[in-house]
Design goal:
- This is Calcineurin-like phosphoesterase domain-containing protein.
- The C terminus is likely disordered.
- The longest helix is centred in the C-terminal third of the chain and has 21 residues.
- The protein is of the alpha/beta class and about 675 residues long.
- It contains 28 helices and 18 strands.
- It starts with a strand and ends with a strand.
């Protein structure tokens, strides 16, 4: 076949109640097709897909009406015989069409395994409006997709009001060309459509890889995850502009018998380019997630995905594919991800790997074996690498590399400060230097996160007298809320939100759930709701993060910080923290709490009782009931009694709270003398 030309019309929604209005668009359609024919083009076939009759009008629209008012004038305009007209209606149209035509699949419904097998042999998909469902994304992944994208000629229906002219050329190389024509309601005529392409035309060779969409949603999320994005008025708002590569080596800096071993430096570009699965190991706030984000950004391929293992739940192949699809903000259906991961240059970055879950590691090992051409990068916390080397790496057939992220050197701190402040660095330099000296004197590591806190405070004109990481985070959160009229209320809300997430064993909440939580929080206190949702305000301040409707703390250390403050008022949480299970689960919170209340560290860091049976699932479950709603827990028995308030643990917490309030007002966050 040298050339084949077809028209694609879709989703007409014929209705006798709107006949006059529809005929205006249809007459313009017939004239445009006739003009195309008169210009010397031969039309070989006409395809109609989608909704032929308006919903609910099938009984009132007989086949004779469809033929007289649509099919016959369309064929006359194209000078095409009836045998070249192909009707592919939706199921509800088949009664009106006299069961004429056939239906292959719907682009907005999920495909079963049998359909997916059939798609392997399909060379083109003609559909109306641009759906992001199974058929479209799967065909795209298989690199055989050609989309007609005809839209609908009916101007009053939302979507692309137009039709497509399709050309297939078989020689010298198979190729589809499409011209999009759009209806203009103002002059009641069709013109070249520039809605999807500049000149209204698209082209695709069957042997070519169909261009995948640029992962815009992913890149935007990377930028919004930056500490500087919501908290700085000076720093760049993009990851590309502010990122500084941390020191990376094959060895940990932990001392050995012969002293600290020499460090073999590795570059991020080198690790990204090789064919090994790379495991990045780092302490808390060492920039592991930001580094993964930057790897995805620098991959310069649309076939890149991310998975946060903390949000996966039970680890299965399907769960991993679903999480990868979610990272792209709806670009692809989960069923398409498997084909995409086989593409050349595909990359999957897996954050927060937990080597202690044997079943999950078995699934991941099989996953890496299945997608052995894909580049895999992982992050995990420092101290977990021994379990990884013992249990997971020996299971893998691919090459692996284990590397460590280290704290910034002085040169990297300076580079980040220059990226942050630009020409304004000279004005804040003395204040920033004083903060960095205070960090060094306190023995705090110069991790990207803690250095960024120092930069943020320096920008705000603050000086820092923090003795440890916990107090530094306290200074940062106080600075974020300093301009709020109801800072104490917002801080209390964050403490209760962190506790609610802990009891629910979740890291995020849907926006609708959070609105209900907010209503309960203010309702049980007899307070009116704020004019604007408080969680929206906290997102703007950089404390919470909204990822497509799933709201979480911007950084996990902020969740830990606010949950640690719940020890002040919850005897149940404090007692659970000193059980065997709770001591392990709440170790980060205990570290924060001990840092805030260092005067009582001998009590707060006591060894967990070895003889006590661990409570299952946390303080709420220890009482024999689930967490319930926030209102139920607040008004019910979850609060400690007057007698329990006199207990030793709560007494320590109460005295520590008073001490912390004094330090926050007078020491940790002070006005700068500069």
């Amino acid at each position: 076949m040298k050339k084949f030309t077809a028209l694609h019309v879709s989703d007409l929604h014929l209705s006798r109640s709107r006949e006059r209005e529809q005929q205006l668009a249809l007459c313009a359609l017939y004239k445009d097709i006739a003009d195309y024919r008169d210009a010397g083009h031969l039309i070989d076939a006409i395809f109609f897909t989608g909704d032929l009759v308006a919903k609910g009008d099938a009984q009132a629209t007989p086949p004779t009406y469809i033929f007289d008012n649509f099919i016959q004038p369309l064929l006359a305009a194209a000078s095409a015989p009836g045998a070249r007209f192909y009707l592919v209606p939706r199921s509800r149209d088949q009664q009106a069409a006299g069961a004429t035509g056939f239906s292959f699949f719907s682009t907005h419904e999920r495909a079963d395994a049998e359909q997916r097998a059939v798609y392997q042999n399909v060379h083109a998909v003609f559909h109306g409006r641009k759906y992001t469902g199974d058929a479209g994304s799967l065909m795209q992944a298989l690199r055989t997709l050609f989309e007609g994208n005809a839209g609908t000629p009916e101007a009053s229906v939302s979507g692309f009001e137009g039709y497509s002219v399709l050309e297939f050329k078989g020689a010298p190389a198979p190729r589809w060309n499409v011209t999009l024509r759009q209806y203009d309601n103002a002059d009641q005529a069709f013109h070249v459509a520039a809605r999807y392409t500049q000149d209204g035309k698209e082209s695709c060779g069957l042997a070519e890889a169909v261009p995948l969409p640029v992962p815009v949603a992913l890149y935007e999320r990377f930028d919004r995850q930056l500490l500087s994005h919501a908290t700085s008025g000076i720093a760049p708002k993009t990851l590309r502009a502010i990122f500084v590569e941390p020191p990376i080596s094959n060895l940990s800096r932990q001392p050995e018998q012969g002293g600290v071993p020499s460090i073999q430096s590795r570059s991020l570009a080198e690790l990204a380019a090789n064919d090994s699965a790379v495991f990045f190991v780092g302490r808390d706030e060492s920039g592991k997630t930001t580094l993964l984000n930057y790897l995805c950004l620098q991959a310069n391929t649309p076939c890149v995905f991310q998975v946060d293992m903390r949000a996966v739940g039970k680890v299965t192949r399907a769960a991993l594919l679903d999480a990868a699809a979610r990272s792209r903000g709806g670009d692809f259906h989960p069923s398409a991800i498997a084909a995409l991961l086989h593409r050349p240059g595909a990359m999957l970055c897996i954050d927060n790997l937990a080597p202690g879950q044997a079943d999950a590691l078995d699934v991941l090992a099989a996953f890496l074996a299945e997608f052995n051409s894909c580049k895999f990068c992982f992050t995990l916390g420092e101290g977990q690498e021994k379990a990884l080397e013992a249990s997971f790496l020996p299971m893998l057939a691919c090459r692996t590399e284990l590397v460590y992220l280290h704290s910034f050197s002085a040169a990297q701190v300076r580079q980040l400060a220059e990226n942050w402040f630009g020409a304004a660095l000279a004005a804040v330099g003395p204040r920033l230097d004083a903060m960095l000296r205070a960090m060094a004197d306190a023995g705090m590591p110069q991790t990207p996160f803690l250095v960024s806190i120092a930069l943020s405070l320096a920008e705000r004109g603050r000086s820092l007298a923090a003795a440890n990481r916990a107090e530094m985070i306290a200074a940062y959160t106080a600075a974020l809320l300093e301009t709020a009229d109801d800072a104490a209320c917002q801080s209390g809300f964050l403490v209760e939100l962190a506790y609610h997430l802990f009891e629910a064993k979740k890291l995020s909440m849907h926006a609708a759930e959070l609105e209900q939580f907010e209503a309960d929080y203010f309702g049980v206190r007899g307070l009116g709701l704020p004019t604007l949702p408080i969680f929206s305000t906290l997102c703007e301040r950089g404390i919470l993060f909204d990822a497509g409707g799933a709201v979480s703390f911007q950084f996990d250390c902020l969740r830990t910080f606010y949950l640690a403050q719940k020890f002040d008022t919850s005897i149940d949480l404090m007692r659970y923290a000193f059980t065997q299970r709770g001591f392990v689960e709440l170790q980060p919170e205990l570290d924060i709490y001990a840092g805030l209340h260092k005067d009582h560290i001998e009590v707060l860091t006591a060894t967990a009782p070895a003889s006590e049976a661990p409570a299952q699932g946390g303080p709420a479950q220890a009482h024999g009931a689930g967490p319930g709603t926030y209102e139920e827990r607040f008004l019910g028995g979850g609060r400690h009694s007057a007698d329990l308030q006199e207990s030793l643990i709560l007494d320590v917490a109460r005295r520590a709270r008073i001490s912390r309030r004094a330090s926050l007002s007078g020491v940790v966050l002070s006005d700068s003398s500069l």
